[in-house]
Amino acid sequence: MKRKRTPVLAFFGIMGVLILLLFVLDIMLGSVNIPFKDFWGIIIGDEAVSNVSRQILIHFRLPKVITAILAGSALAVSGLQMQTIFRNPLAGPYVLGISSGASLGVAIAVLGSSAIGLGFWFGQIGVVLAALIGSMLILLLIVAVSIRIRDIMTILILGIIFGMATSAITSILQYFSSEGSLKTYVIWTMGSLSSVNGSQLWLFSGLVIIGQILAIALSRPLNVLSLGENYARSLGYNVEKIRLIVFVSTSLLAGTTTAFAGPIAFIGIAVPHIVRLILHTSNHAILIPSTLVTGASIMMLCDVIAQLPGSNLVLPINSVAALMGIPVVVYVILSKKRFAQH
Amino acid sequence: MNSNLTIEVKHLQVGYNGKSTSDFNYPEINVTALNNELIALVGRNGVGKSTLLRTIARLQKSIAGNILINGKEVEKTDRNKLATLLSFIPAEPVHSPNTTVYDFVSLARYPYHSWFDALNTSDKFVIERALKAVEMVSYKNRQIDRLSDGERQRAMIAFAIAQDTPIILMDEPTAFLDLPNKFEVVRLLKEQSENGKTVILSTHDIQTAFGFVDTIWLMLPDGLRVGAPEDMVLTDAINRLMKDTSVKFDLNTGQFDYNIPKQKSVIISGEDKSIINWTAHALARLGYQTVKKVKNENTLSVEILNNEGKVQWCLNEVQRKPTFDSIRNLCIYLKMDYKNLE
Q1: What is the tens place of the pLDDT at every residue in A222-272?
Q2: I need a surface site. Which of A190, A335, B5, B296 has the fewest CB within 10 A?
């Protein structure tokens, strides 16, 4: 069957407009709405805008929107990388156990310290560091395994098993911890885009940008790997080396996002599929940038919805992302024709 | 040194040399391949055909020995350089969602480019030429996952042609195909060898290869035999391949036959030589040897009559003379008759 491809330029044009729109909307909406007049005033440097609006915009909304863009694009691109490298449509950024590693780190920091009677003395940056260390340790484990084991499916299974093991330890910590620290931990697992600010935002952006540059540089090897390892090898690629760089890129993207915004599920699995459904391509030189912008805009959309415009309530971002992503994943599972079994 | 020499295999030992229990080690291999040569690597399932091909393609390490390509050792050749000398197409049908035939074949041009430059006009020319060679030009916008097995195999051959290497290795290209497609694939590969390339295809299907290839590399459990298909017949190597089965290669008919003991005899008389031959063919299956003179009292006599264009088989028995309108009915009668006698 012939299928007409959506012109890539049109896609990026529409995405550009959408991102701009969502950016403005996400800044304006919240428990305190900033009118568009104030927003525009701050942009053009009008001194007459109220100081409250200015403070909210610069110190709360702008970091939150940037976090949404970074988190959405990072999770989506790392999900795409994992789907390609494992040649599995249901792979996502967390298949290697990165989020479980981060969760264990946070659990040890938040719950462990209270369990041994130290109380919670880490603070926000402590949680971020604990999550980063946790996900990086899992990455090291995966890299060590992937140097010794060539079979990609074995690596996938080991990633899942590592995830289960860390969840078990996390459960033990939860069982023995105090109510207060348990709540801190549970709230962290619900995800939040508004806890990153100031210098943390610079660190977050830096790590995600490095991860994205690696991802874009890998688009050709990923094209070849999507045919299977034999093709990649016979075209002269060093599959083990590429895999290693992909794992580093993915843990930079997904690991830091989990550290700064909590484990946000389904965006990473769903967004690459949305892009493929629109563009019908397997060329990563197109897929990666498209997934990047789509991930950013869907994350902003999730955040706009999470504000429940017109109310004072705010929903946990993880739940909104899951409710947005799950229908896409269900569609992918049901439409097997797009991923014919072999 | 012969300048037509493309592959030299010296004292090569292939196999798996690990701590695992599945140690596999094939006897030392010494063999050469020329350009213009179409070679079928033939052997029973599991004898190590894929292992040998993969070792030549450097997808797998050898245990000992050397492989030279154009006089240079494979192990010491740069991966990317090797990808311009040798293409290897694996046995599994290619599977990649959202990929057109053109997308797929164009990936074969990657060894000629750095990571970022796009396909140029000469690449496009090579891709078009490859598609034309396998008669797939009108399929170029079709999704690779929606092709039939025969079309897909042709696309895989186009990939090898587009990689534009003097050596093409294909692992089991006829394995998933019906008989017409098998012959078509071998014909396309023969064309490539006639264009000056060295083409090696592995197959367990000796009958398809037999009439077309220049050389057979016969992988017997005790070592590799090399020769023209006819050499294989005359040295009885081909019957060594059939060891432990009841099939034998018939030197006179050039066909494989079940090794049925022929204890009964039959005299066939009639006008048409080909009808006599095919009747003898069918009766041989039932254990009858065709003879010229009556051997004993059990010798059967079949007379082929031609009644105004209608062929009939008449059995000359003592009491009756049953007549049949097809070889099938004759055979059914003969089988029944002997059951009744027992």
Answers
A1: 999 999 889 999 999 999 899 889 988 998 899 899 988 988 988 999 999
A2: B296
If we measure between CA atoms, which residue out of B261, B302, B248, B297 comes closest to residue B280? Answer: B302
With beta carbons less than 8 A apart as the criterion, state whether B218 and B241 touch. Answer: yes
The interface residues of chain B toward chain A in range 137-166, judged by CB-CB distance below 8 A, are 141-143, 145-146, 163
Query: How, if at all, do strands B38-43 and B198-203 pair?
Result: parallel
Judged by a CB distance cut-off of 8 A, whether residue B95 touches chain A is yes
Nearest residue of chain B to residue A218 (CA atoms): B115
- Which residues share a beta bridge with B216? B40, B227
Residues A149-181: tens digit of each pLDDT: 777 788 888 888 888 888 899 889 888 888 888
Pairing of the two strands B5-13 and B64-69: antiparallel
Predicted ipTM of the assembly:
0.82
CB B18 within 8 A of CB A149: no
| Local structure of residue B262 (DSSP, 8 states) | -
**Best mutation target, A213, A231, A286, to test chain B (most B CBs within 10 A):** A231
Q: Which CATH architecture has domain A8-334?
A: Orthogonal Bundle (1.10)
Q: What share of chain B is helix, strand, coil (3-state, %, to 5)?
A: 35, 25, 35
In the structure, what pLDDT confidence band is assigned to residue A340 with cuts at 50, 70 and 90?
very low
Q: What is the pTM of this model?
A: 0.83
Q: Is B19 on the interface with A (CB under 8 A)?
A: no
CB spacing of B110 vs A283 below 8 angstroms: no
Q: Which residues of B touch A233 (CB under 8 A)?
A: 57-59, 88
